[in-house]
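Morning F.,

Quick status update on the modeling queue. The single chain you submitted on Monday has been processed. Sequence for confirmation:
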Amino acid sequence: MISLAMFGFWCLDREIYLTACHVAGVSNTEADEMSRSFNDDIEWSLYDDVHDVFEKLECHFPDIEVDLFASRLNRKKDRYVSRMPEPDAFAIDAFTLEWSDCLYYAFPPFSLINRVLQKVAEDEAEMVLVAPLWPTQVWWAALLKLISVDCYLLPPATQILHLPHKPSRRQPLTKMKMAVFKLSGKPSKNIPDVACELIFTILA
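Structure tokens below.
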């Protein structure tokens, strides 16, 4: 790797002179385009006003301390981790933390579920995960291996999921079923042969 000093001498030998100047963010649209792109339509949250889903969930798992994938609009716990800087967030980017010191709650974007399961196993984490019943997904087998207690079936997704910043928007996957999974990355706590006998209880 060329050091900054070597690069400076290289430029001087060729009579190349570099200067730096500040470009206001409003004018620097091309360079900042990727960092400014934000898809807020993946910020789905449990809609508690109707079914009190999270309140019921906490009755079964009262030790939940941290909401790992949240924002100020959809957080379920006072201690939450956001993906972008927020003044009230406990931390930024859940994947930079070690998930080994408490019981976590996670309702991640569906595209991150596989990565979440990998980290649960790596950190031997304890987690309450809200995720779709989706046996055809590549992450389903990994999910089954981490289940530590019976699972809870949730009401239809169209009834319990919403976007806090777009209250009238409902989950477009109308046939999707959602469930609550208690996961453990500690092999001693996993249910053996869970793939053959996955038991669901209606959350109440």
